[in-house]
Fold this sequence. Notes:
The complex is a heterodimer of chains A (304) and B (386). By secondary structure, chain A is α/β, with parallel strands linked by helices. Chain A has helices at residues 2-6, 41-55, 74-77, 90-100, 112-118, 120-129, 174-181, 194-205, 220-226, 232-242, 276-288; strands at 62-66, 81-84, 105-111, 134-139, 185-190, 211-216, 243-245, 262-269. Chain A has a single domain (38-291), classed as Thiamin diphosphate (ThDP)-binding fold, Pyr/PP domains (Rossmann fold, 3-Layer(aba) Sandwich), CATH 3.40.50. Chain A has an eight-stranded mixed β-sheet, sandwiched between helices. In chain A, α3 (74-77) links the parallel β1 and β2 (81-84). The N and C termini of chain A lie far apart (64 Å). In chain A, 51% of the residues are buried. The mean pLDDT of chain A is 95. Chain B contains 13 helices and 16 strands. In chain B, β2, α2 (42-51) and β3 (58-61) form a beta-alpha-beta unit. In chain B, α1 (17-27) packs across α2 and α10 (292-306) crosses α13 (374-385). The longest helix of chain B is centred in the middle third of the chain and has 18 residues, at 152-169. The mean pLDDT of chain B is 98.
Amino acid sequence: xxxxxxAPTIDMDNVQPEDHPIAPFIRMDRMPHIxxxxxxxxxxxxxxxxxxxxxDLDPKTIAIVSGIGCTGRVAGYMNYDAxxxxxxxxxxxxxxxxxxxxxxxxxxxxxxxxxSGIGGNxxxxxxxxxxxxxxxxxxxxxxxxxxxxxxxxxxxxxxSSTMPFGNFDQPFNLPHLAASCGASYVARWTSLHxxxxxxxxxxxxxxxGFRFIEVIAPxxxxxxxxxxxxxxxxxxxxxxxxxxxxxxxxxxxxxxxFQEKIICGKFVDEPEKTTYHENMHTHYEQVLGDKYVxxxxxxxxxxx
Amino acid sequence: xxxxxxxxxxxxxxxxxxxxxxxxxxxxxCRFVAGYPITPSTEVVERMSRRFPMMGGTFIQMExxxxxxxxxxxxxxxxxxxMTVTSGPGFSLMMENLGLAVMMETPxxxxxxxxxxxxxxxxTMTGQSDMMQARWGSHGDYEIIAMSPKSPQESFDLMIxxxxxxxxxxxxxxxxxxxxxxxxxxKVIIPEPDEIDIxxxxxxxxxxxxxxxYEVNNGELVPEFARAGDGYRFHTTGLTHDYRGYPDMTVxxxxxxxxxxxxxxxxxxxxxxxxxxxxTDGADVVVLSYGITSRVARLAIEKxxxxxxxxxxxxxxxxWPFPEKQIREMAKKIKGFVVPEINMGQVVLEVxxxxxxxxxxxxxxxxGGGVHDPETIVEAIVxxxx
Lengths: 304, 386
């Protein structure tokens, strides 16, 4: 009883949006956001903000980069230096940002179509380099911003606006793609797993290298409606009943079939794996010795 | 501000145009290059990747040209002077993010060592056929700066100008070389660092919380800059945006932004254009050219003068924006312009538009792979003088 007595009381009539614990991490002047009711992207943003609240990092060391699409709008709502770039090029843009100011901690938010469709080449190369980027991919199995077309992640048999008779185009197993290309950290959750997702963001922010987190999220407006899967609540129920946590699972076994089991968890975690930057510095120090002048962590800016 | 001595290889050198352009970029303070190999431009990044580790510069070979251009914009937002280098096919792929650079008002330089096209065309042979792509290549309405050097020495000198203009107007500058200039080797004098003027990034002195990334006051056209990582927590986007950098999906917002993006170049044309003029007073015919073609035209001009034709010369150094006012006035005083270029007639269209029927305009086309036979230019000059 005493614990209850100490709990803060909320005056619901007078509570303001700015009073929300994650408000400092969000551009509250841009609320309300554009996402549909029951969309999972807001949950991902909330979990990231909650992780940031916990970590208490200097906000000026954080940068957010997004591509195009529903999840591409995340950069516009995060209260950091934030870049809403071109379709598919978020990773390439972020690579330049990170390489020119290495002290930045760069997080990307983008969708499955943006990062694995049009941006797939940048994805595999950044993973190969173990480029020091945290990539959060929200997978709603469809191109949602444009009206629900088939994506490289649409499960077989699922209906999309451009596969009206059901999809026959083999989808990606994204954790396996990331892991096989060299990512040092790979995890997957659904937007139902808010506590675990938040923990994963916290942990991944403190790791280095190419860190890939896939979040399966509902698009009830398009994907769920066309496939007669019900509302967001039905999808949450589906995630609850059909997701299975298997930490350390071989990523070859985590592909997703239509309305089949979703394997979640942390699949890869190699904190010692060296990054592109570390490899570059170590190599130049070895071969060039004292002649090597590294770019300063605050960037190649000289104002003398 | 003067050049950082680490990037300046003071002295007399024997360099090709590609190397000279790379040296110019390093002297200008460029410290980030992202690129993808493509003939005949690759020597620029080969030179820079060899020298960069000794001057605090970073080169990364990206997976393609779309990535290269995107990385350059990302790097430029840290305040680092940034550049990419390519040729025709890569130039096409860079058009997507060139538009982003324009929209985000990103200072950066894009080098295109032109070869023959379309498509893979003539990878190792010269061309000037991307000049209209430089002007119009990315979708939407915008204004850009494009320059064309005629020699290795000018590839060095003009590159410093290119970086400086990109800083002043917060616009990508297209450095339109051609394979001949890129691969010709000549003497290049690199001055002392304190003889090289560098325009630094116009950083805001506002405090975080008071700063909006695209705010302009008192009729100014170029906003102040904040570097990512300095605590301003700004947002920028390729969407049409307001002074806060927030999306603004209105016709009014579109008018305001597109007008300012174009005005910042159009209203400063007199400060941006660079061209050489010779014996145009009293001339009957004026030969207008740029890049390697201006040097090929030299022989033709001398031959035509021997035949008694009064020939004037205009060599464009900055091709875009175009010296519209000057060409318009000149057209009223001469019989005709002759425009040789290594394409099937691109910049000649702009000359013809500006001449507005006040004189003739003769195109001397060449599809690429080589330079003009000077006799074809002589013929055109003599024809235009009649």
